[in-house]
Specification:
Layout lengths: L3 E12 L2 E12 L3 E5 L6 H8 L7 E6 L2 E2 L5 H6 L2 E4 L11 H8 L8 H11 L1 H5 L10 H13 L5 E5 L7 H18 L2 E6 L2 H7 L2 E6 L2 E7 H6 L1 H8 L5
Parallel strand pairs: 3-8, 3-9, 6-7, 7-8
Antiparallel strand pairs: 1-2, 1-4, 4-5, 9-10
Helix pairs in contact: 3-6
């Protein structure tokens, strides 16, 4: 059996007549952290959304755990245990932290609910302190923790993280990335990460891809890309956190 969990092959995605992704090939193996870096507007978030079925790929195939999910609607893709923490966090602002976590729980896994909530509170102690507080009153960093926590409540096989460090202070970014490392190393969670903070992403990742104008232009281990002169010049100069 293949150890590839997610395989994106030859995927093209359009918004109307505008091609946003042009023949993208990306693989994520079980137990890996893989990052996708690139400038704002390169198509990174579009790839994340295409994996989740909205918009759907016009050509190419997306395979998850050996099953072709290219044409599945978003709710059925989520049922395959792919969970996303989207760009901009998108928590429920009027609901409490605890209620937001309830919204993330899968109906199939309700018997694990209390155990899963405790795991998230261990990972993000700040959320435990804030569990009765409305999501909209949290700081940006706390909202990001809640967005990741809500995604984890679905007990995913694959966690998709879209720009988790966006707009956050360096100390909070470090906490978020430390948590991702713990999830991967201690719980074996497979993570696909889209991130503008190239230095933090490459340092954390086993492998990475570079996207420019909707196409993957480079790939390699996190270490290789960190040392690559082109990557350094384009994404790393002055961008360390």
């Amino acid at each position: 059996m293949s150890d590839t969990l997610l395989s994106v092959q030859g995927v093209e995605t359009y918004y109307g007549n505008i091609r946003a992704l042009g023949g993208v090939n990306v693989d994520v193996k079980k137990g890996e952290i893989v990052s996708l870096i690139g400038a704002n507007g390169a198509g990174k978030s579009t790839l994340m959304m295409t994996i989740c079925g909205s918009p759907q790929a016009r050509t190419g195939t997306i395979t998850f755990d050996g099953e072709d999910i290219t044409r599945l609607p978003t709710h059925l893709i989520a049922r395959r245990r792919i969970a996303q923490s989207p760009e901009g966090r998108r928590i429920f602002p009027r609901m409490t932290v605890y209620e937001n976590l309830q919204m993330g729980a899968s109906l199939d896994n309700l018997k694990y609910f209390d155990e899963d909530v405790e795991k998230i509170f261990t990972l993000f102690p700040r959320l435990k302190e804030r569990q009765a507080q409305r999501g909209g009153t949290l700081s940006g960093g706390e909202q990001q923790m809640l967005s990741i926590g809500r995604a984890l409540m679905a007990r995913p096989k694959l966690l998709l993280l879209d720009e988790p460090s966006l707009g956050l202070a360096p100390l909070i970014i470090r906490q978020i990335f430390d948590a991702i490392k713990v999830l991967n190393e201690e719980q074996g969670l497979t993570v696909f990460l889209v991130e503008q903070n190239a230095f933090a992403a490459l340092k954390l990742s086993h492998r990475a891809y570079v996207m420019v104008n909707g196409q993957v232009t480079m790939s390699g281990s996190g270490k290789e890309l960190l040392a690559n002169p082109e990557v350094r010049a384009a994404y790393l100069e002055g961008g360390r956190h």
